[in-house]
Amino acid sequence: MSRTGYNLRTNYLESNEVIRRPYQKVLVAMVLAVAVLLPAATSTFFVHLLNLCFLSAIGALGLMLLTGFCGQISLGHAAFLAVGAFTTVILTVHVGAPFVVVIPAAAVTGAVLGFIIGLPSLRFRGVYLAIITLAMHYTVIFLATSYQANFAKSASAGITIPDPSIGPLVIKGEYTWYYFSLVLLTLVTIWCVNLIRTRPGRAWMAIRDRDIAAEALGINLTRYKLMAFMVSSTLASVSGSLLAYYSNVVTVETYTIDLAVIYVAMIIVGGMGSILGALMGAIFMTLLPFGIDGLFSYLPREWRYGSTVFGVQVGAVGICIILFLLIEPKGLAEIWRRIETYFDRWPFRYRPLDTTRH
Amino acid sequence: MEFAATIVILTCTYALLAAGTVILYKAGRVVNFAHGELAIVGGYVFYSAGLMSGGTSLWFPVAGAVVFSIIMGMFIYMAMMRRLVGEPFYVAILVTVGIGIVLKSAILVIWRAERLTIDVGVTPAIRMAGGATLSYMDIASVVLTVAFFAGLYLFFRFTRLGVQFRGTAENALLASQRGVDVNFVLSLAWVIAILAASLSGVLYGGRAFLSTESVTIGLAGLTAALVGGLDSLRGAVAGAFIVACAQYLTVRLVDPVLSEAVPFLLLVIVMSIRPWGLFGTQEELDRV
Amino acid sequence: MEKHVSRKLFAAAILAASALAAPAASAQNAYVIGYITDLSGPLADSYTPTWQGFELYMKALNDRGGINGKKVEVILDDDGLKADRAVANAKKQTERDNVVGIFGLSLSSTQAPVFTEMRKIGVPVVTTFSGILDALPPSKPFSYSTGVVFEVAGEAIGELTKNIKPNGKIVGMTFDSVGGRAALSHNKRMAESLGYTWDEVLFPVTTSDFTPFAQAVAEKKPDIVVGHYGSGQNLGVIPALRRSGYTGPYIVASYGVTEDTVRQAAVRAGNDENVYYVTRYATIYDNNPGIAEVSAAQKKYGTSKPFSSMHLTGWTLGKFAETALKACGWPCTREQLDKVIQTLKVDAPGLTGGPIEMSPQDHYGPTYWRLYVWNPKTTSMEPKSGWLKKAALKFPLQ
């Protein structure tokens, strides 16, 4: 295989390869090694931020499968997270169920809701579907608010849930959570990669590219669209449950429509139709406000405490998103692809072929 | 009487927003998620311009809002939307989300997040049975909305620019080949849309209040536009009326808390019967 | 050109990453405390003046020479009313800035997670303006509040209603949030136990026009209407109620509602004498030395927000912090600070109806509430009742 041909596929078997470049194995190993060793070299605060990145990346992967691969736009991701979180609350507080029961239960609840929300997708597309998922969002939040308000006589404080434990191992503290979520994210990523390499993934991509053609090819639209919604909401629900466990507190005010938009931003900034993009987008969008906080912390304190600087920070997040989309609408994954191609071709500098994304 | 007046005024606010959404959609196939923010910032600009002129004349704040719409519309189109031609539609949508965030931050920085009310003509003009009142502002909002839609109709129907506009909406490539300045027409679409939004922001600031929270009216406008059909101005009015009715009746007859979700549920029903909206065209379904 | 932009962005990203990842040591020759609140989110309008009141107190304190010759350094962070940012900033402050305690915080949604996280590391947290049940008996460790707990406010408002009308029908309004519902249910409980009849109207959080809701309220023919929400809703609801034909008494609950908001709302409502205000902290119209002191500091150092009772709230928290740090001594550790706060008594004459008293069992203490009425002739507020003492309550109430 020639070194210029990594982006060109000449037979169907090749398109099933996960690792195409010889150095990619080394790269993946290196990234994992750095990830394992990182906590030793940085602060608890940063480890905490990474935990948030990893846990929300699970949700972002779910949305990527749905939107990036199956082409169904959803603004209901915050509601799916809420479903996971409130399943966790109900099971731990009322039943006292252990972690190993709660997570599968959250997954099942998420899948059921995903199925229900998937039904309109059989008829609506694009923006229309997005607005319908908004209706679902408000309904779920209404139910969750009612539950939280009536759960205890007075629950304005949010509902506390205990640290999870698997057998004798209690998952507690930033560092334990770091390795736990790292392992989990790795497993989910591998699962997602395999999913899109096999029949469902192929079917989703066909539906995304042209649903009528896909149907003509014999793909059962009903089945695969519903499946995409179910897989997506399952991952979101699990992610919501884990985030709830991690923060030990569940309160409905967390799950705003802004949160749903942030998840959509994650996959667009990361790069539609790329698993790597979902991971990078989740990390980017989670770290962005804190990064901007960090940049502004270089300002003199007197200056910074003037009340407007924090408003400027909010705007900086928006400007980052806009600039990003104007300069690189295909997302972080595309930047990464260009870097790879550059090294593939080195020392030549001719333009890489613009091939279809995988 | 009271309920009819409330529904009509609500319809006006939503119809202006929905009209903007429809114009932008028709012109550039962009669904604008920053419409609520644009409306509220327009209201803030109106307020500040009024403050600067000492609150004596109404022309100054009106001019302020118009200048804001022109600058904002030109800028959004020229600096951002023009560059996104050919990208998937969700990229443009997310850019408008980004614009919304920046506008929210403008409220924080320029107006220090202050909650404001626009107190123009709030004194009661009509007193109805039961003690309920209608202010001059309420009456003005109906008159202005009707005038706006009438103006829009005349513009599209009878002016040269209006015809060019319709041509561009039909097929931008062909229009440009026939010598239409497509960039100008599309910037104009943004200016008109923001002008309508600002007007609705001002009306809203007179009836409720302006703040970073009130940007959610944009969603109601979007829903109205979708119910009526994304590519139909007539539909925008009809959609606004239906959403206003649905909200009002939910508050009064069912449960006030549900009035947030009901417009969306209504949308689901309308779309199950006519997925392209009440007055929309079927071909548009595939575009977004 | 685009290449340069992306390079600059890349450089900025590196800079930001280094600011995030690098542990920064702060000079330990001052008391370092943290302050986290909503400075950019939906409630920034209410929380910014509270912070400014706190900052005024700290500026004045440091100009006086600080505590025992040591200055107080405040690390300020914004949470934008988001729980994850509040928690992350609390972790940053405790680890990197090494703060001994955290003050401020915004709404209940950010308080609960911060309390929980800080309890794990043992950092005392004192909230202001709005508080949550963690601080009330049975109090959870390290969680304190000097603010308005919705449940307690509901009880107090219910009791103070007696000063307007001894009986009749009360209609409570709130938006559909957990805090709003909590306040409403306790207002109802108290009102019914005092012989009023009760009805309520809830509206969604993102309500765009209040008129339909106001009409629903007016139709219930209430004698008194109570609004359990922040500034903006009052601005919208009061005129809407008047438009709908309800001209009776309306009570504004002071959840971050400034005097200026009440003025605006009262003016829009047609300047009648039926707008009331229930508050835990005094209003700026009160004439006493305590308020004069804050006002003088405000004139000296300046604030971007107009002077309001939210500044008084922040100022009182500043006083609380000073008293605690003084009692803690030097060097002050987190354990020591927590220990002294448990028995702290802070008197803010003129700003509250009575001292803030903490005890190991009760991290909230008794609170004092007062009813004011808006006077359109003098454009100020006048007290309509004495200070009502609400003793420590144990929730859930039976």
From the structure above, extract its key features.
heterotrimer, A: 358 residues, mainly alpha, two-stranded antiparallel ribbon, two-stranded antiparallel sheet, 4 strands, B: 288 residues, 11 helices, 69% helix, globular
What does this structure look like?
The complex is a heterotrimer of chains A (358), B (288) and C (398). Chain A has helices at 22-41, 44-69, 77-95, 99-121, 126-151, 173-197, 199-209, 211-216, 221-247, 257-270, 275-296, 301-304, 308-327, 332-345, and strands spanning 159-160, 165-166, 169-170, 249-250. By secondary structure, chain A is an all-alpha fold. In chain A, strand 2 and strand 3 (169-170) form a beta hairpin. The longest helix of chain A is centred in the middle third of the chain and has 27 residues, at 221-247. Chain B is mainly alpha-helical. The radius of gyration of chain B is 19 Å and the shape is globular. Chain C has 398 residues and is an alpha/beta fold. In chain C, strand 11, helix 9 and strand 12 (275-279) form a beta-alpha-beta unit. In chain C, helix 3 packs parallel to helix 4. The model of chain C has no long low-confidence stretch (mean pLDDT 88). The chains are: A mainly alpha (358), B mainly alpha (288), C alpha/beta (398). At the A-C interface, helix 2, helix 5, helix 11 and helix 13 of A face helix 1, helix 2, strand 2, helix 3 and helix 4 of C.
Percent of residues of chain B in helical segments?
55-70%
Query: Nearest-angstrom radius of gyration of chain C?
Result: 22 Å
Q: Would you count the extended β strands of chain C for me? A: 17
Strand percentage of chain C: 15-25%
Number of helices of chain C: 12
How far apart, in Å, are the first and last alpha carbons of chain B? 40 Å
Major sheet details of chain B: 2 strands, antiparallel
Low-confidence stretches of chain C: none
Order of helices and strands of chain B: HHHHEEHHHHHHH
